[in-house]
Amino acid sequence: MDLIDNHSRERLLRVLAAATFIIFFQGYMVAPIIPALSAVFGTSVQTVGLIVPAYLVPYGIATLVYGVLADRFGIQRIVFMSLSAFVVLTMLTATSRSIEQLTAWRIVTGLCASGVVPMALALVGRLYPYEERGRALGWLFGAMAGGMAFGSPLGAVVVQYAGWQLLFVLVGGAGAVVHLCLLPYRAILKSTELRVSGTLRDVIQGYAQLLASARGKRTYGYVLVNSMFHSGVFTWLGVYLERRYGLGPVGIGLALLGYGVPGFLFGPLIGRLADRWGRAKLIPVGLSISAGAGLILIFEFPLALAPAVAMTLSLGYDMTQPLFGGIVTSLAGKRAGQAMGLNVFTLFVGFGLGSLIFGLLINCGFAAAFAVFTFVELVAAMTAFALFKSEMPLVPDGSKVEIPEHLHMDPTRYR
Questions:
Q1: Can you name the residues that pair with 414 across neighbouring β-strands?
Q2: In angstroms, rounded to a whole number, what is the distance separating the alpha carbons of residues 224 and 117?
Q3: Cβ 350 vs Cβ 228: under 8 Å
Q4: How far is CA 339 from the centre of its chain?
Q5: From CA 282, how far away is CA 222, in angstroms rounded?
Q6: Rounded CA gap, 118 and 126, in Å?
Q7: What is the pLDDT of residue 70?
Q8: What is the DSSP letter of 230?
Q9: 286-289: long-range contacts at Cβ-Cβ below 8 A with a sequence spacing of 24 or more?
């Protein structure tokens, strides 16, 4: 680890952020074009909406496997294999001739391409000490937010003028470029490996240990609830805007333009604030902001304010999930891949379940669906003040305590 100079480490971080951006761009470009795909394939928006959990749920499940494989065989192999699969399968999705084929490609893509983001997050845990990790994680979560921000409007624009098939081809090509940019960093990726062997029983015990502590339970629990809220609300915003305001694909994309902007611009800054002030102060605020955005959506508001509402919703996400990720990096010791795999599993299963449950609730009306999700998020915000009060730096005056490199993920660094 000492042989990695800071400049190389920072350049690698940027490339990993680019890979994260492309993957989240692909994941979020679909939601705003649900109405357009419904017209193309001649089926209901509820049926087309299933392509969102069809991608997200398998993605989350597969991360459990990739985390274990990375701990055993090395992060480098998993990252390159998964990124290659993302490129090929995203392009092949353009060959779909029915909604069933499109759904099948989304399932396979979710299963095969889900090793990049969790391994990138785990790499941050290997490359950066805990007291500097918030900024680095901010870059990755900012890239996630940027993918969300640009995936929605640009996806809608491309579909409007060039068709949905070209959209998938272009994103697959962008992934291929990132793959080439990552090749020079194979040696650094390999140098971070701390391989862990063991039986299936050891793996199961590893997951059990991650969830055994109160800190692990509350962190993963909040990742699930928060991801369900954000995915449920965001996935169906396009349909909501179409039905309430009569917007087309481009109008929907422009209305959602604000989503992801706060994280894209301020992700590293939010991470620095978490490192300096502690996550206890920021997490409840982020949850409250999310609940406030949901409350606004219950009532009719001027269409011109839609980007601001989307930006508020995004800010709530950017002030919570990256901070939960920072806590997760300190839970696992040498099993960084397994801990982050469980985190991304929880995150993406939450994404999938949230979009599915919200889709069912809109049968009772959008106002009812927003009200249910907002109430749950508000309860989470109120309880977070007590549950995360211990997530404060142990050294209040800001001085640093040097930690041996192999103990950077020691959970005793933070209470």
A1: 393
A2: 17
A3: yes
A4: 15
A5: 14
A6: 13
A7: 77
A8: H
A9: 286/315, 286/316, 286/317, 286/318, 286/319, 286/320, 286/323, 287/226, 287/316, 287/320, 287/377, 287/378, 287/380, 287/381, 287/384, 288/316, 288/378, 288/381, 289/315, 289/316, 289/319
3 state DSSP class of 404: coil
pLDDT at 410: 39
pLDDT along the chain (415 residues), means of 10: 70 92 87 84 87 84 80 83 95 93 94 87 79 78 78 79 90 95 88 65 77 90 94 86 84 77 77 82 94 92 89 90 84 68 83 88 93 96 93 55 36 34
Q: What's the length of the chain? A: 415
Residue 414 DSSP one-character state? B
Contacts of 313 (CB under 8 A, 6+ apart): 230, 233, 234, 259, 290, 293, 294
Tokens (6 digits) for 330: 């300190």
CA distance 85 to 81: 6
Q: Which amino acid is at 104?
A: A
Question: Which of 334, 37, 62, 311 is CA-nearest to residue 195?
Answer: 334
What is the pTM for the complete model shown?
0.71
Longest dimension (CA), the chain: 62
Beta bridge partners of 393: 414
Nearest to 143 by CA among 26, 235, 238: 26
DSSP string, 330-351: TS-TT-HHHHHHHHHHHHHHHH
**pLDDT number for residue 200:** 65
Measure CA of the first residue to CA of the last residue in the chain; give whole Å.
26
At a CB cut-off of 8 Å and minimum separation 6, what does 207 contact?
A: 64, 338, 342
Note the CATH architecture for domain 6-187+211-393. Answer: Up-down Bundle (1.20)
Q: Which amino acid is at 163?
A: G
| Spatial CA neighbour of 371 closest among 379, 155, 333, 105 | 379
What is the number of other CB atoms lying within 10 angstroms of the CB of residue 23?
A: 27
